[in-house]
Every structure is written in C-alpha cells, then in structure tokens.
Amino acid sequence: AQTVTQSQPEMSVQEAETVTLSCTYDTSESDYYLFWYKQPPSRQMILVIRQEAYKQQNATENRFSVNFQKAAKSFSLKISDSQLGDAAMYFCAHSGNTPLVFGKGTRLSVIA
Amino acid sequence: DAGVIQSPRHEVTEMGQEVTLRCKPISGHDYLFWYRQTMMRGLELLIYFNNNVPIDDSGMPEDRFSAKMPNASFSTLKIQPSEPRDSAVYFCASTAGTALNEQFFGPGTRLTVL
C-alpha cells in the first residue's frame, strides 16, 4: 500500500527566510505523481506544486520548489522568501496505482 | 470557472438524524472524490467515481454511509443515522482524464453531530 510520511508536525520560519518541509513516501510503482497542497485557516485545499516521477528536473513554482530524490523516495518542499500568507497546513500527497494518498501534514507558522 | 461547489458549508445535527452533503464538480471533470478530514486520521478517501460510476468505495467507513452520482454535475454523500464520531470536514474534489492527476477541492462541509 502507498504511504506518505511527513515527519515534522510543526515548523516555523521568519518572514523572508527559507524553510524546507520534508516528505517521504513508499510505493512499488515506477511511474507516479507527487503533490504538495496548502490548507490555510479557510480550510480550502490549494495545489502548490506537482512532480511527475519520470521527470528528473525538480518542479518550481515561483517561491516554491521541490527536491525530488526518487531513489530515496523523498519529496521535500522549499519555500523561499517566506510570507505571512504562507502560514498554513501543508500536505504531501502521492498517486500511483491509486488516487491521492496524503500525509498527516505539517503546520507552518511564519513569524513577522 | 466556479470551481467545485459544496453545500452546505456547515451542518449541525443531532445523533440519529440523516445528513446529506452535496457536491457539484468542475464542468468537464469526469472523476469525483469524497474525502473526510479529522484531526486523528487526517485526510481519508471515502469513495470516488468515474463517469458517474463508483470505482472504489473501500474507504467508506460503514453501511451508514452512502454516496451517489446521478449525473455528471451532481453527487451526494449521505449518512444515516449520523453519530457524533462522524463529526469532521467532508471534502469533494474533481479531476479530469485520470484519477492520478491533481485534484481540485471544494471548500468542504464542516459536520457536527451532537
């Protein structure tokens, strides 16, 4: 079965600094997708970034980038120049032979 | 596009009552998913549909839960009878082409069963 592990229940970062959220996953599939979703206090689930496993290049979306290590089954999210609006729960998710499986989430606080 | 629409946004009911949650997916999306989010268990997939047909309902917790998708633009999740442990946020999501794509979520329904 697919599993996704986020080992950091909570993280904090100073405004304008960089923070990295960790995620590992377990799968027997060779082709799959990985995602990071953001859930602010409004509880809306918002897609932050996606990565196809067959692509070696790490995905980037503005201030958000990933470090995808396929052999290690690791998929971390880096947020650069953190802003107050980045404060939220962040969920790592994986889809392979089944639809999205989510990790338990990391709560990110941004300190002004 | 209006995005995925869910109603109601909040529902408070008493134990034993029937609860119906509603979802309208994004137009053109052929996959629809229902999730439950709790502090203890996180986000759990309950059931998903492809072209209005249920594909996997293994996440449905018990017979009190049922879901239908009578057409491409509407789905319901029903709990009968409701219990306090059903209190959670219920999300509907949709996507197109494959169940493995990124999903677009509705705003969720916060259900409280007293």
Relevant terms:
heterodimer, A: 112 residues, mainly beta, six-stranded mixed β-sheet, four-stranded antiparallel β-sheet, globular, B: 114 residues, seven-stranded mixed β-sheet, 0% helix
Write the layout of secondary structure elements.
The complex is a heterodimer of chains A (112) and B (114).
Chain A: E1 3-5, E2 10-14, E3 19-21, E4 24-26, E5 33-39, E6 46-52, E7 60-61, E8 64-69, E9 74-79, E10 88-95, E11 101-102, E12 106-111
Parallel strand pairs in A: 2-12
Antiparallel strand pairs in A: 1-4, 3-9, 5-6, 5-10, 7-8, 8-9, 10-11, 10-12
Chain B: E1 5-7, E2 10-13, E3 19-24, E4 31-38, E5 42-50, E6 53-56, E7 65-71, E8 74-79, E9 88-95, E10 104-105, E11 109-113
Parallel strand pairs in B: 2-11
Antiparallel strand pairs in B: 1-3, 3-8, 4-5, 4-9, 5-6, 7-8, 9-10, 9-11
Question: Span between N and C termini of chain B?
Answer: 36 Å
Q: Given the structure, what is the number of helices of chain B?
A: 0
List low-confidence stretches of chain B: none
Helical coverage of chain A, percent range: under 10%
Radius of gyration from the alpha-carbon trace of chain B, in angstroms: 13 Å
Rg of chain A, Å, rounded: 13 Å
User: What is the overall pLDDT average of chain B?
Assistant: 94
Q: Could you say which structural class the secondary elements and strand pairing of chain A correspond to? A: mainly beta
Structural features, described:
The complex is a heterodimer of chains A (112) and B (114). By secondary structure, chain A is mainly β. Chain A is 0% helix and 52% strand. Chain A contains no helices and twelve strands. In chain A, strand 7 and strand 8 (64-69) form a beta hairpin. Chain A is globular. Chain A starts with a strand and ends with a strand. Chain B is built from no helices and eleven strands. Chain B has strands spanning 5-7, 10-13, 19-24, 31-38, 42-50, 53-56, 65-71, 74-79, 88-95, 104-105, 109-113. In chain B, the strands form two sheets. In chain B, strands 2, 4, 5, 6, 9, 10 and 11 form a seven-stranded mixed sheet that branches. In chain B, strands 1-3-8-7 form a four-stranded antiparallel sheet, with no helix packed on it. In chain B, a hairpin with a 3-residue loop joins strand 4 (31-38) and strand 5. The chains are: A mainly beta (112), B mainly beta (114). Chains A and B meet through strand 6 and strand 11 of A and strand 5, strand 9 and strand 10 of B.
